[in-house]
Write a structure and sequence with these properties.
The structure holds 2 protein chains of 2 kinds.
Chain A: H1 9-30, E1 33-35, E2 46-53, H2 62-72, E3 75-83, E4 86-92, H3 97-105, E5 110-115, E6 118-121
Antiparallel strand pairs in A: 1-3, 2-4, 2-5, 3-4
Chain B: H1 2-21, H2 23-30, H3 42-49, E1 54-61, H4 75-93, E2 98-105, E3 108-117, H5 119-130, E4 135-140, H6 179-183, E5 192-197, E6 214-215, H7 222-225, H8 269-278, E7 295-300, E8 307-308, H9 309-319, E9 336-339, E10 341-342, H10 350-360, E11 365-369, E12 387-393, E13 409-414, E14 432-437, E15 446-451, H11 454-471, H12 477-486, H13 496-499, H14 516-527, H15 548-568
Parallel strand pairs in B: 5-7, 5-9, 6-7, 9-11, 11-12, 12-13
Antiparallel strand pairs in B: 1-3, 1-4, 2-3, 14-15
The chains are: A alpha+beta, B alpha/beta.
């Protein structure tokens, strides 16, 4: 401990504030972008879908999310991107995967939509 | 494939023989380019050989004899004609104790002195023989040794945790015959292999081969997990540059989310799989990977209770060097992707197939395990077109009882476990040993773990592909896949795949048992074609495609492979 500097309280507060802002912004960045219909209630059955677009698309663009919400008829969150034309969304309150697929394909920009399957390692556990 | 098989049968001996003819230069020039870590220098080996007494020579004549099968010539007439040439040369050179031994080619004969002479005397004799107008050239028929095998203790067949899957098939029927390939200096050096799995631990027997990877596990659905959207990733964030495995343990509480059946300890699956493909070799520690000179690109896509198709596809695209995932592709993309994972009961959808096609279009191979359901259907993505689907066999070479087989299976590799039909033979372990971690939940110290599964089979195929890609990086990966598939050993008689008790379509277990030695021999025959013996010439013209050193290196490797094989099976 010898020689260790004790930061003045003002500097400490500033540092703490900076840390808090950083952590907060980190949290904001990690949370998926979400668009829900006004009437959507909290937790409903969700379906995770991979949506293929006919052209390169910014998967998390507000316009795209609005269109997906409109056609999917449920709450939508952008989760990740696989390629410029393939993005992953979580839909809740939007029915099951076959229904969603049918609804989403009604949007001309969508080529296809398939369930984002859960995959397991091939080792017996 | 038919062409490859034919080439393998016809080409190897010619390549070998020609390599022997050029051995004096090929060994010294080419051996360092074979890329093996800590391999003895070919120059040193040659220098030692040159100190030994000499008894055998190879004489190339300007006029070839008629080889057996040519224009009515028999083996007897061939020998007589060749022996006459040699007798005449012996007389001209004053070497009365020089005898004809055998022919390598129509114009290349091996001769032997009744008593070995010093290297200086041998040089003098060679000068006199070259003075014969009928003689084109004379070289010493060197005695060559295979390079030393790696010193990893688990490679020893009798060790408690031996890596039986790497052994010669004469010792363990299910082994992949890779030792002779290493002995000849091929280790997969320079090839990047992506392990698309659960990440890795910086294991002492692994880390030196690991490149900076990426964690592609994205957030879980907030509507399902509430604010705990990194439940699968288990590292507190979504995609990030840290591909290390934080553990994938499952508590009883976790089972309620529907992704898991029961509580489990951490598996360290990705670390185990990575070690099978490319754990560090010849370091005197633990075991080693099939391509222990290759570099491993870890791509973390599996977390607690597996992962999502989308993350696997994104990770695979990234590893292959493709843009669009939101992450800058690696500076050195992979040539082979290992996917020891899958989802059962679904066909390959068009979305996944299109990603597979996109990756393959970049000359990258995708190898996937067939699944452990004991069924006759492959899991996805092994069932996608263009994916090399790998089923598993046991020590005895029988199909493992858990291993999925069926239409689309490419090949079988060791996965351990119990036979489907054949009785078990003595010998342990029946599981596959590789790098692991001692942590039951969070990471702890390094250890070695025993697993079985098709997960363990796929990375061995990946390793062999890396060996081939290292030897000839200019060959398309699809060609190398064809060579691996076309150079297998047959399934053992009486086993499940040979007897086909349920009348499944032909090839339901793939082409046969993975064999690294045969694959390397086949790639040598494929990439180093020699001019077929003509009626007049029969010369040993090496087609180098402008890569003379590579050609010579391959020829030398062929010779070393053959010698290694002879050493194991003395005649």
């Amino acid at each position: 401990m010898a020689g260790m500097k004790i930061l003045p309280s003002r500097a400490l507060s500033g540092w703490s504030l900076g840390l808090a802002v950083t952590m907060l912004s980190g949290c904001v960045q990690t949370l998926p972008q979400q668009v829900c219909p006004p009437s959507a209630d909290a937790p409903q059955a969700s379906v995770r879908m991979m949506v293929s677009f006919r052209q390169a698309t910014a998967g998390d663009a507000p316009d795209v999310l609005r269109q997906l919400q409109h056609h999917g008829k449920g709450c939508v969150s952008h989760l990740s991107s696989v390629s410029p034309t393939l993005h992953v969304y979580s839909f809740s309150g939007a029915g099951d995967a076959p229904t969603l697929r049918l609804n989403l394909r009604a949007w001309s920009a969508v080529l296809d939509a398939v369930p984002d399957e859960r995959v397991k390692a091939h080792t017996p556990r | 494939m038919k062409f490859l098989r034919t080439a393998a049968k016809a080409g190897i001996p010619l390549a070998l023989l020609c390599s022997l003819a050029v051995v004096a230069t090929a060994t010294a020039v080419a051996a360092p380019k074979l890329g093996g870590k800590a391999q003895p220098s070919g120059t040193v080996a040659l220098a030692q050989a040159e100190q030994a007494p000499v008894a055998r020579f190879m004489i190339r004549y300007k006029t070839p004899v008629k080889m057996a099968g040519q224009r009515g010539a028999t083996q007897a007439t061939e020998r007589l004609e060749a022996a006459a040439q040699v007798t005449r040369s012996a007389s001209v050179s004053g070497a009365s104790n020089l005898r004809y031994l055998k022919s390598v080619a129509a114009d290349l004969h091996v001769v032997v002195l009744e008593q070995a002479v010093s290297p200086a005397e041998a040089q003098a004799l060679m000068q006199r023989l070259r003075a014969d107008a009928a003689v084109e050239d004379v070289v010493i028929d060197h005695r060559m040794q295979a390079h030393a095998l790696p010193n990893d203790p688990y490679l020893v067949p009798d060790s408690r945790y031996n890596q039986w899957h790497l052994q010669d098939s004469t010792v363990v029927p299910g082994g992949i015959n890779v030792r002779s390939v290493w002995g000849a200096g091929s280790t997969g050096s320079g090839v990047v292999v992506a392990v698309v799995d659960g990440g890795y631990r910086p294991h002492a027997d692994l880390e030196a081969n690991v490149l900076p990877g990426y964690d592609f596990i994205s957030a879980d659905s907030p509507s399902k997990f509430g604010r705990n959207i990194h439940w699968t990733a288990n590292d507190g964030d979504a995609r990030d540059p840290d591909a290390r495995d934080p553990g994938d343990w499952i508590t009883p509480d976790d089972v309620t989310n529907g992704y898991c059946d029961k509580a489990e300890e951490s598996s360290w699956h990705g670390t185990h799989v990575a070690g099978l493909a490319g754990a560090v070799g010849n370091n005197g520690v633990g075991g080693l990977g099939v391509a222990y000179g290759a570099q491993l690109l870890p791509v973390r896509v599996l977390g607690r209770c597996g992962g999502y198709s989308s993350d696997i596809l994104a990770g695979a695209r990234w590893a292959a060097g493709l843009d669009g995932t939101g992450v800058t592709p690696p500076s050195r993309p992979a040539k082979v992707l290992n996917l020891s994972l899958g989802v059962s009961g679904v066909a390959c959808d068009t979305t996944t197939q299109s990603i597979v096609d996109e990756i393959r279009a970049r000359n990258v191979s995708i190898v996937a395990s067939s699944g452990n359901d004991g069924s006759t259907f492959l899991t996805m993505p092994a069932n996608c077109k263009g994916v090399m689907a790998v089923t598993a066999h046991t020590r005895e070479g029988d199909s493992a009882d858990y291993a999925n087989v069926g239409a689309g299976t490419a090949i079988s590799a060791p996965g351990g476990g119990d036979n489907t039909i054949l009785p078990p033979s003595p010998g342990n372990p029946r599981f596959i040993v590789s790098t692991g971690n001692a942590g039951l939940e969070e990471p702890a110290g390094d250890n070695y773990m025993l697993y079985n599964g098709t997960s363990m089979a796929a990375p061995q195929v990946v390793g062999v592909l890396a060996l081939l890609a290292s030897l000839r990086p200019d060959l398309p990966m699809a060609t190398l896949e064809g060579i691996v598939i076309g150079s297998t050993r047959p399934f053992p008689a009486g086993g499940y795949c040979a007897t086909n008790p349920y009348g499944l379509p032909a090839g339901f277990c793939g082409s046969g048992l993975l064999d690294a030695e045969k694959a390397v021999a086949a790639v040598i025959a494929y990439v180093a074609p020699v001019a077929p013996p003509s009626d007049g010439g029969g010369g040993c013209t090496v087609a180098t495609n402008g890569q003379a050193d590579a050609g010579l290196a391959l020829l030398t490797l062929a010779a070393l492979l053959m010698l290694a094989r002879r050493r194991r099976q003395p005649r």
